[in-house]
Structure to design on (293 residues):
């Protein structure tokens, strides 16, 4: 169960998920507004060949632009350590408030220009009415979108299988029977490797690159469509350690930890592999695991 103070699940802030949510929200809001116009006694939205209809379209487009800019900013802030589930909820609330204020501005300006009928409601009444309207338009698609991606992520499992605990017709050898099996986003097994040959896993947007040593002693990489967060959630108590927003390393393969001006770096002592940075967020955890090997 995720608490409000927990860090927001990464799968809710991938580019594909964010922009899919924006498109879904825009379509839902547009349909909701069009359907509710005949039944609304307070909103000034209008259909047909009129200035009020054009004014309605302008408001919808400006609101959509506001949400797009907000989500673009959210993508840039997603790696901040304090971006928790509570912060995500608060971000959505701010969007709702801003669009409600925008509605209030459009209402007053439209009344001044004579585009929409002037009413006797106060600014507070207009704002509160818009707040309810906007909350429905945004919260419903946000909630369904988050639920969909959460259920999808649960299906994208990556299992760390220890064959040493399985009954077999031959004795289990420590580590040699321990394999890491990787599944793609459709739940299809794509890659299986001994943990002795895995060096690190690198994030590449919605894909990951698995760097490993093949049977001929050559360094290879394998790419599959999967999120690094899904891997992170599946390697508790294993030798795989998150060291950076883009990297998970096999701590048993780390030869040297280098300290520099920009923090620690991981060196595997292999010419074909460069160093891997350790971010401040994961520094203490990596140092503790490295020293306790």
């Amino acid at each position: 169960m995720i608490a409000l103070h927990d860090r927001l699940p990464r799968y809710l802030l991938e580019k594909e998920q964010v922009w899919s949510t924006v498109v879904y929200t825009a379509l839902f809001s547009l349909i909701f507004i069009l359907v509710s116009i005949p039944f609304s006694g307070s909103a000034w939205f209008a259909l047909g060949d009129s200035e009020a209809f054009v004014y309605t379209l302008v408001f919808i487009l400006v609101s959509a632009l506001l949400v797009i800019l907000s989500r673009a900013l959210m993508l840039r802030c997603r790696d901040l350590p304090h971006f928790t589930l509570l912060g995500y909820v608060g971000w959505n609330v701010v969007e709702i408030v801003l669009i409600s204020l925008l509605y209030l501005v459009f209402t007053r300006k439209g009344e001044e220009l004579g585009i929409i009928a002037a009413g006797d409601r106060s600014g507070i009444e207009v704002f509160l009415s818009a707040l309810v309207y906007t909350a429905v338009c945004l919260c419903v698609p946000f909630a369904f979108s988050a639920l969909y991606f959460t259920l999808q992520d649960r299906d994208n499992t990556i299992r760390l299988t220890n064959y040493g605990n399985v009954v077999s017709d031959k004795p289990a050898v420590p580590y040699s029977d321990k394999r890491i099996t990787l599944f793609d986003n459709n739940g299809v097994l794509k890659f299986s490797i001994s943990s002795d040959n895995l060096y690190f896993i690198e994030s590449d947007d919605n894909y990951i690159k698995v760097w490993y040593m093949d049977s001929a002693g050559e360094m290879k990489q394998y790419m599959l469509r999967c999120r690094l967060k899904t891997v992170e959630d599946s390697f508790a108590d294993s030798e795989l350690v998150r060291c950076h927003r883009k990297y998970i390393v096999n701590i048993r393969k780390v030869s040297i930890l280098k300290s520099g001006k920009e923090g620690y770096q991981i060196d595997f002592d292999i010419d074909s592999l460069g160093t891997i940075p350790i971010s401040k967020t994961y520094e203490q955890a990596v140092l503790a695991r490295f020293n306790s090997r």
Notes: The CA atoms of residues 255 and 268 lie 5 Å apart.
